[in-house]
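Quick question, first post here. What does this chain look like in 3D?
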Amino acid sequence: MDVRYFIKLSERPLWHNYFIWAMIKYLLTVAVLTCGLMAWAQDSTEVKSTKDTSTYTLIQSKAEFPGGESALYAYIMKNVRVPQSALDCGTSGRVVVQFIIEKDGTISNAEVFQSTFDVDGPSKSAQKKRAKNGLPEINCDQSKKDIEEEALRVVRTMPRWSPAVQKSKPVRMRFNLPIIINVS
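> Answer (accepted):
Ran it through. Tokens below.
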């Protein structure tokens, strides 16, 4: 073995130290990029697999409500009924409903994915009316549940959608739909 290999770093030429650090940086960069490309190369479109069906979120052609997005929001505005408990409590909310649009366009597996609420509290007139009629106090926690149930009801009663398409075949698609119920 060559004796020059054992010379201290401080005695080596300056360009040699820079060369070593540049090689280390290069090898680390290549390693990170290789790992990133391997992760990217995985098929990330398939979310949930079973023996005969798959649910997709990233697809070639997304599912569409009959008439488009504007018709979807018009349908929601027409069919949402604000629960009485939400009116009494002054509860407004945003409920994100997650559901699957099947290959035939029907809705399945509707569930509340996320919900946020703004509760003003029961109005004085509502409290007086309930006390006068001998009814119990208003439970504002129930109004939150009622808003969530109303959002689920609207989604479950939707007409059939145009199904999503992947590789020229209809596929199941997971969809998140925000529904805002404003009392004010």
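The radius of gyration is 29 Å.
The chain has two domains: 3-41, 46-181.
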